[in-house]
Design goal:
2 domains; eight-stranded antiparallel sheet; seven-stranded mixed sheet; 42% strand
Length: 256
């Protein structure tokens, strides 16, 4: 679970059609890494902690996961993306698999393989209402002409629909560790989205990048996903520790 710029993003492994918990990311050399066993279905969960709406783009392995659209999250709203969108519907969940030599030969290797890139912008605050100004009336014969004190100014570009095309932004992040896994369509699902309109967005774009790994640094395959709720037993003294702990509080053993 990553929190940055008032946006929470997490990877949720799915087992037998139900979320099994939130996967914990481990920051290694500046990279937020999530360890999943090969063959795991997963979804992405978002929570907008801002007081304004957020517009979110998602790229998985360098591909636009939203089929040219973007997700809109209201203030304080939580949402999920279960897989690659087709039109306005998701039919298949995300599935993380091993990138074998056969797969690499067929599709090639990409720098973005194993990366989930989430970029988002917040809606601009609403424009304040102008102060009340009374109208001046000028009598001319039997008719009354209404004259405004100030001329009407041109407004900013009106609300835009973000169900239209979206250019894929350049990837500005290069991982230190190359992954041997990719995301493909997995189990059947049926998630629907509807089109909404938002106002002008703040020009600043924020980015969160997660790296999915199916192997540890020593080449051993991951057997179970690392979840936030999981407790670990210290190999030295046997004390149970949170997965957040880097050192055992009882004996000081390095748990990482």
């Amino acid at each position: 679970m990553v929190y940055a710029q008032k946006m929470v993003v997490c990877v949720v492994p799915v087992k037998n059609g139900s979320p099994s918990g939130i996967a914990r990311e481990i920051r290694i050399e500046g990279t937020d890494q999530v360890f999943l066993p090969y063959g795991t279905d997963y979804l992405l969960r978002f929570r907008n902690m801002h007081s304004r709406r957020a517009v979110v783009s998602v790229e998985v392995d360098g591909d636009d996961a939203l089929d040219g659209s973007r997700l809109v999250l209201g203030a304080g709203e939580e949402g999920e993306l279960e897989g690659f969108m087709e039109g306005s519907t998701v039919h298949k969940m995300f599935r993380f698999i091993e990138k074998t030599a056969k797969i690499s030969k067929h599709r090639g290797d990409r720098m973005e393989d194993g990366l989930i890139r989430i970029s988002f912008q917040f809606e601009k605050p609403p424009r304040p209402r102008p102060p009340y100004r009374p109208l001046m009336r000028r009598r001319r014969g039997w008719e009354d002409d209404i004259i405004l004190r100030d001329s009407v100014r041109s407004m900013e570009k009106g609300p835009a629909s973000y169900s239209a095309e979206l250019g894929v932004a350049d990837l500005d992040y290069t991982p230190e560790i190359q992954t041997s896994g990719i995301t493909v369509p997995g189990a059947d699902t049926n998630q629907h989205f509807r089109s909404v309109h938002v106002g002008p967005l703040e020009p600043e774009e924020h980015v969160i990048v997660l790296q999915l790994l199916g192997e540890k640094s020593d080449g051993e395959e991951v057997v179970q996903p690392l979840l936030t709720r999981k407790k670990y037993r210290c190999p030295t003294c046997g004390a149970k520790n949170s997965s957040r702990a880097k050192f055992c509080p009882d004996c000081g053993t390095n748990l990482t």
